[in-house]
Amino acid sequence: MLLKIMLVDDEKSVLKGLAHIFKKHCPDFEIVSMVQSANEALQILENTEIDIVITDVMMPEMNGVELTKIIKDTYSHISVIVLSGYDDYEFVRQALKNGAFDYLLKPCRYQTIIEMLRKIENELVVKERENEKVKRNKLLEKLLKGEQQLPSEWKIDNPMYMAVITTNGYVNSFFEQFYQELEGMYNSQGIDALIFQNNFVIVFRKDISLEIMKKKFYKYRQKCSSNKFSSLTMAFHSFQYGSNCLMDAYKTCQRMIEFMEFNELTSVIDDESYLKMLEMQKTVPIPSYFSGIKIARMLLGFDDQKMLDYIETNLNELHQLDVYLDPVRIKREVICEIAYIEKEIKQHLHEVELSQDQDIIEDLKKIKTIKDMLNLLKRYPMSLLIHIQNEDDQPHYIRAATKYIELHYMEDITLQKVADTVYLNPWYFSSQFKKYTSKSFSEYLNQVRIRAAKELLQHKDLKVYQVAEMVGFQDAAYFSTVFKHVERISPKEYQKTI
Q1: Cβ distance 181 to 209 under 8 Å?
Q2: Do 91 and 64 meet the contact criterion of CB atoms below 8 Å apart?
Q3: Do 325 and 262 share a structural domain?
């Protein structure tokens, strides 16, 4: 890197001395100008490319402190070194404050000058690399967005490759280490990378082994697992040179990653394995597991028990298939089934207005995993049934909930657990439960438990704490409090009356 230097000093002897040092000891630095005043220096800087200015502090008309400020304000890329005598410390301090890189004491030892210039040179090299990296990243970002066509110098006859890595946490340090090792392997040639849309994207304009990429990926995934960032997925895609090939390649990698996330897989997916899994899932007809015709028929017949059994059995069976499903395809087919269900309800129940028509569609679009989708599909028919049922009748889900409580009261059951069994969110279930039973969930549960406790207390050999545990209370004192609140008498007193 050839650096261009300007020397500024009102003493000719100093200029000649510095020029001699550079000629003898720094042949890779070029002195392009030597002037004896700050004004001359500023005139030359207007039309000359300079990297470093070495200036004296004490000069007539304008001193080196003022010159430093003007240079740094106007030409921020230029490094300024000030020359100073021992008694010029205050001037030096002000020059450094104005942006000078450092200072030299007169008379100057050539070793000190060389050391300082090498330091500036190293900093400029680092800065130049950073600027080049920023330029490359901006270009790559435009290529990924399709805002710019691929440059002709990128053209190669062989396939290009793209690796897109995503994680459940933003691990910038992981990406940097991963990229640095790849750069070392390929000498930084034909490889570009950046963080784009929270994904780490690497583009290879040279042949690369998938097996090598897998080994590197698994190595770094193992490192990240100790930091709770184990959910790492990589899509590896091969493509040919073309005007918008990077944008198309990135979209393909996104679809591959979406496929992996939907099926809750964390590994490497490549073109061959992706196409194979897509082909396998085509054998699974979604209407066989979520049929709009059957669900609509059961809804219109208010056959809620049969509908719940159908949904529970079929969707669980779908989840257990040894096939990975394509989220794009399954969402499209499910939307068709939902459209049929809602059309049938509107056609046969004219007075019913489905206010949530679009909600299920929007929810489906946001779904990330197959598990979340199946849970949504289990809740959806129940929400429709609640919407169209006669409010005077006690719904099946309330009967199912009370039956569940009667069978499981001795366990550690919660409102959430019971709501899940009837596919309702806990807040809605809580309000509906109180509406149809006139009791809150906890009141109803306690009532069932106390009724069972009264049966058990008839056995004189059972202690109160034993009965409490047998009917689902973890704390005997709390059991006694609840029992007395319901029966107006303590468990011990009740046992004595038997």
Answers
A1: no
A2: yes
A3: no
Cis peptide before 107 (omega within 30 of 0): yes
- Angstrom distance (rounded) from CA 24 to CA 439: 98
Is residue 460 helix, strand or coil?
A: coil
Half-sphere exposure (Cβ direction) of 139: Cα atoms closer than 13 Å? 13
Q: What is the pTM of this model?
A: 0.62
| Domain end marker among 276, 311, 342 | 276
Q: Please count the helices (runs of H) and the strands (runs of E) in the chain.
A: 21, 10
Share the mean pLDDT of the chain: 85
pLDDT digits (tens, 9 = 90+) for 305-319: 788 889 989 999 999
The domain total for the chain is 4
Could you tell me if 277 and 324 are in contact, meaning their C-beta atoms sit under 8 angstroms apart?
A: yes
Letter for the amino acid at 55? Answer: T
Residue 357 — very low, low, confident or very high, per pLDDT cuts 50/70/90? Answer: very low
Among the listed ranges 6-20, 23-37, 203-217, 233-247, which one has the minimum average pLDDT value?
203-217
Q: Measure the CA–CA gap between 472 and 468, rounded to whole angstroms.
A: 6
Q: E strands within 66-219?
A: 79-84, 102-105, 160-167, 191-196, 199-204
What strand order describes the sheet that includes 52-56? 29-35, 3-8, 52-56, 79-84, 102-105
Q: Is residue 485 part of a domain?
A: yes
| Phi, psi (degrees; rounded to nearest 5) at 189 | -95, 130
Nearest to 71 by CA among 100, 93, 32, 49: 100
**119 CB-side CA count, 13 A:** 12
Rounded-to-integer distance, Cα 123 and Cα 126, Å: 5
Q: How far is CA 424 from CA 218, 381, 410, in A?
A: 40, 10, 23
Residues 272, 153, single domain; the answer is: yes
| Mean pLDDT (whole number) for 238-253 | 92
Residue 339 lies in domain: 286-388
Whether 313 and 370 share a structural domain: yes
Of residues 77, 85, 81, the one with CA closest to residue 53 = 81
Lowest mean pLDDT, pick from 298-307, 353-362, 363-372: 353-362
pLDDT of residue 40: 92
| Contact assessment for residue 271 and residue 237, using Cβ atoms and an 8 Å cutoff | yes
Q: How many CB atoms lie within 10 A of CB 229?
A: 17
User: Torsions phi, psi of 356, nearest 5?
Assistant: -100, 25
Element (DSSP H or E) covering residue 336? helix 327-348
Strands (E), 212-358: 232-239, 268-270
pLDDT in tens, 22-37: 888 877 788 899 999 9
